[in-house]
Design a protein that fits this description.
Heat Shock Protein 90, Rossmann fold, 20% strand, alpha+beta, 22 helices, binds adenosine-5'-diphosphate
């Protein structure tokens, strides 16, 4: 009779936790067992390099899944290193690895916060077998040694007995509980292996049974004949971890096929980056930049699914912000580290030095690649920027360390580029006339809105280029970039803009004073007509052709930002802007005359129309569309009558 032995209490605690909290991810038990089997084979293979005798007569490394529908057992078999009784006791009766122990501690400390999904991403080892099995039996033999059998019902006790086993290696036999009998199903096993163990280096095989009705020579099924049963052993995993191969051994087509596999994209990648790092940290990475956002990129459930983390070919997670910063969330591919333990908890991952080093290296590699693309293949880079520029820009806010490199990667439309051609900051600066001291930009809803903004007029007159910031994130990003190459950024729809040199200012001083004097009453009247719709009404320095425009004060929220804020909170108060009037404009002159002649009501009507016009050019709707159209119609009626009278 075998001696009953008790698990160390900590093991029992872990068992209970794993079994109960991981239940919704229970299929990971298979990943864990296959990964142990693969490790066991690696160890045997390593020894066999110097000691052929351990091969006995079986050198074809293999993991086999054996579902037995009658006995309701699933066996995971390997021909790896095997264990003797001492090792069985040590490895499976206690927590040998400090990784597992740490995992247990983390689990206990954070029981309430750690969702099963989170825990499920990380290795939990052999014990996870008890999620699906009421009894686990391990039959194992080392080469040249004798066999042992370990059995437990996961109730705190286990037994170890001598056993019979012809071949080297380990069989893990799971007596499946009733609700887990699906793991006897060929399809279920196939899917689970594909998801978690597809790239395990050794073949994961299974006997596949097929029944076929015998046919006559015309291909017709022979009535009443017994079906012909064939059993063929199939390999369930692809094993083709192409990231493990040197670059020179992977073809373009293999890369493309692999990309489609990891990304679920149907197009080819825009760029493929394959590299490995050796030294203090060791990892291999195969990263792709898609050509366009993959359609589900902004679906919340999928948005944090990105680069997949593997540990020695075993899938760990595809949601790992510790590995890839959020501003590179468009990347797809694989990172495979040899330095991480399989059983690493979320918390450990967050503080893990290896992960930090990998992240740093990955970010550098991707930014280097983009910089090179920008320099050598501008057309391709433009494609990239149009697809992901708005995401990449977020890095300015997040990644202080790489801020300067990110600035060099930014592209903008501008008054000096054709639509869609875009310029970099470096090119902008190289075009700056000597007198220009600052970098000018305008935030607007769209390219068209920016291009037609009346605020550009004074800049056009001076020959100063203005960048167009038309992504919703731009206003926020520009706020994080006070300067580039010691040149300040300045938003041209905010604050006081006066492009004149000191001499020009002095020369115009007289005229300004005169304008201020002649328009004093008009400004008063317009201010009164608009009431608290505007912060102020004043004369403009930036308009040369249009009659009016709206501007914010130095620290005001821009139109874009206001829209974003409103979409988050509809109660966000509209920020009041300043209405600027162009004293040289015909309409403003007419209003002055009307006012002098006492037509106050008319001037008020025009003031309201002007305000709506300014709102429209800034791509904001008029406050009261009905009133706006009524005023417009009245004007049209008056104007058309005047025209008619002339005929
Ligand atoms: P981990 O694999 O993270 O160390 P496990 O609980 O999965 O934790 O396994 C504990 C130990 O048991 C392993 O480190 C290994 O030494 C041993 N072991 C597990 N499965 C096998 C196997 N199939 N063949 C040989 N040894 C095994």
């Amino acid at each position: 009779m075998a001696k009953q032995r008790a698990f160390k209490t900590e093991v029992q605690k872990l068992l209970d936790l794993v079994i109960h909290s991981l239940y919704s991810n229970k299929e990971i038990f298979l990943r864990e067992l296959i990964s142990n089997a693969s490790d066991a084979i690696d160890r045997a293979r390593f020894i066999s390099l110097t000691d052929q005798s351990i091969l006995e007569d079986n050198a074809e490394w293999k993991i086999k899944l054996i579902p037995d529908k009658e006995a309701k057992t699933l066996t995971v078999q390997d021909n790896g290193i095997g264990m003797d009784d001492k090792e069985l006791e040590q490895n499976i009766g206690t927590i040998a690895s400090s990784g597992t122990k740490r995992f247990l501690e983390q689990l206990q400390a954070n029981k309430d916060q750690m969702s099963p999904e989170l825990i499920g991403q990380f290795g939990v080892g052999f014990y996870s077998a008890f999620m699906v099995a009421s009894e686990v039996t391990v039959i194992t033999r080392k080469a040249g040694g004798s066999a042992f059998k370990w059995t437990s019902k996961g109730d705190g006790f286990y037994t170890i007995d001598p056993a019979e086993k012809a071949t080297r290696g380990t069989d893990i036999i799971l007596k499946l509980t009733e609700e887990n009998e699906e793991f006897l199903d060929e399809w279920k096993l196939r899917k689970t292996v594909e998801r978690f163990s597809n790239y395990v280096e050794h073949p994961v095989c299974m006997d596949i049974r097929r029944e076929e009705m015998p046919r006559d020579k015309d291909g017709k099924v022979i009535e009443g004949a017994e079906p012909k049963v064939t059993i063929t052993e199939e390999t369930l995993n692809s094993m083709k971890a192409i990231w493990q191969k040197p670059k020179s051994e992977v073809t373009e087509d293999e890369y493309k096929e692999f990309y489609r596999h990891v990304s679920h994209d149907f197009m080819d990648p825009l760029e493929t980056i394959h590299w490995n790092v050796e030294g203090t940290t060791e990892f291999r990475a195969l990263i792709f930049i898609p050509e366009k956002p993959i359609f589900d990129m902004f679906v919340p459930e999928n948005k944090d699914k990105g680069v997949q983390l593997y540990v020695r070919r075993v899938f760990i997670t595809d949601k790992c912000e510790e590995l890839v910063p959020s501003y590179l969330r468009f990347l797809r591919g694989v990172v495979d580290s040899a330095d991480l333990p399989l059983n690493v908890s979320r918390e450990i991952l967050q503080e893990n030095r290896t992960i930090r080093l990998i992240k740093k290296n990955l970010v550098k590699k991707v930014l280097d690649t983009l910089a090179e693309m920008k320099e050598k293949n501008a057309e391709k880079y433009l494609k990239f920027w149009n697809a992901f520029g708005a995401v990449l820009k977020e890095g300015i806010h997040i990644d202080f360390e790489n801020k300067e490199r990110l600035e060099e990667l930014m592209l903008f439309d501008s008054t000096a580029t054709e639509e869609g051609k875009k310029t970099s900051l470096a090119d902008y600066v190289s075009r700056m006339p000597e007198a220009q001291k600052e970098i000018y930009y305008i935030t607007a809803e769209s390219y068209q809105a920016a291009k037609n903004a009346p605020q550009l007029e004074a800049f056009a007159a001076k020959g100063y280029e203005v960048l167009f910031c038309t992504d919703p994130v731009d206003e926020w990003i520009m706020g994080e970039m006070p300067e580039y190459k010691e040149k300040q950024f300045r938003c041209i729809t905010k604050g006081d803009v006066n492009l004149d040199t000191d001499e020009e200012k002095a020369a115009k001083e007289e005229e300004r004073k005169k304008d201020a004097e002649t328009n004093k009453d008009l400004l008063e009247a317009v201010k009164k007509a608009l009431g608290d719709r505007v912060k102020d009404v004043c004369l403009s320095q930036r308009l040369t052709e249009s009659a009016c425009c709206l501007v914010g004060d130095e620290y005001a929220m821009g139109v874009q930002m206001e829209r974003v804020m409103k979409s988050i909170n509809p109660d966000t108060p509209a920020s009041k802007r300043i209405l600027e009037l162009n004293p040289k404009h015909q309409l403003v002159a007419t209003m002055r005359s009307l006012l002098e002649k006492g037509a106050t009501v008319k001037v008020e009507e025009y003031a309201k129309l002007l305000y709506d016009e300014a709102l429209l050019t800034a791509q904001m709707p008029p406050e009261d569309p009905l009133a706006f159209t009524r005023r417009m119609s009245e004007l049209l009626v008056a104007d058309s009558s005047a025209e008619l009278a002339k005929l």
